[in-house]
Amino acid sequence: MPRAMHCRAFAGVIAIVVDVSAQGLFGAAFIHANLWWCKLRKTTKLGKFPIIEVFAVTLVTAILAYPNEYTRMGASELIARLVKSCSPADDYPLCNYNQSEALNVNDKFSESYDEVALSGVMKSLWLLTLAMIFKAFITVFTFGLKVPAGLFIPSMAVGACVGRILGIGMQQLAWKYKSSDFFLYFCPTSVGCIEPGLYAMVGAAASLGGVTRMTVSLVVIMFELTGGLSYIVPLMVAIMTSKWVGDSLSKGGIYDGHILLNGYPFLDSKEEFEHITLACDVMHPRRNEAPLTTISVSGTTVGDIRRILQGTEYKGFPVVLDSETQLLEGYINRLELAAAIDRAGKAYGVDDTSLVYFTIRPPRHQEAGQPDHVSLHHVLDVSPFQISEQTPMETVVEMFRKIGLRQALVVRNGRLLGIVTKKDVLKHVDQMSRVDVDARIVH
After folding, report:
1. What confidence score (pLDDT) does residue 112 get?
2. Is 231 or 390 the better-scoring residue by pLDDT?
3. Half-sphere exposure of 55 toward its Cβ, with a 13 Å CA cutoff?
4. Contact 168, 127 (CB under 8 A)
């Protein structure tokens, strides 16, 4: 087997070790810690003083980061230095190796280049360890601040620190036991076989993968940053392994956690809904609930519309033929309805007693002295999405995912029965998932 293939195989094995030991575990621990802090910020008085929190975090960062040269420099500069391979021309402490023998400057992997680490490298290992701990700790508090502090670069910096430390350790181990059969097989020359910079690069990618649970897109990003096809395989292995380790400890990445924490109406297309429930089990109104707030086609005035807008917070309203038959005529969005009423209120001859109509043409007869009618046909959705009360929720969930619905009206023979919103679907999916967990515990 050629020497280059030995090196790649050996580097691939170590990349998995870096990923499993540090990045997947770090990702899961970071997600739990950050979500705990953000939840504390939302539920306590801490969230009422965002400026004080920013100043406090800035002060602590400045005090703790300045003494260490690796935390004092920018995170991008730190990553660039960690992923760079050392050559005899480098004079910074991280590349302080024994160069007592004659060197060939044009070949950084020359046989005369001694890889025995000196005091500068040993000191850098301690500083990198402190930098890794500091950045992992402080990022828990900076991600979610009112001032953007980033997630990609700090996470990659943590992984690069871990990878560089492990790479230097394996480099020194290979040099010390270079005569053993194991290292003779993988590193027959013992010099230049192990690249600490490659370990830092793989560690940075795996760390970000463990935090965000990104896969293909992260591999593409790292490929664009490095520009090397030979690094694709170790990067793919590290990123996928970090995702598997992270998923075994916590569900979803940091962004999924914040979506749930903030209550955003997001339906994950990766999760399948296989429960036997119907739309009538989820729709509103249910028994002992107030009827839906609807708008009748006939007899509704501008004043009625304004009272509905002031007395409710719904995002939209079904439009029915009348309150008795509840025959569905369409659906109207709250913002569009409010804007149309505001524009109509500024027109001459319109007041709260003005009748509204939803047809293209206005009513034929208008009594003398009666205020002008207001047309709302241009803001009426005459073909809203409709489902039956017997529609399986599995089908409803797929519709909301693939079509991007915000609500679906439940009808029977054209008569309005209720409404299912995206938040209703999310609550139902979450409720059913908890039922599954309880069933597993019982069994």
Report:
1. 41
2. 390
3. 4
4. no
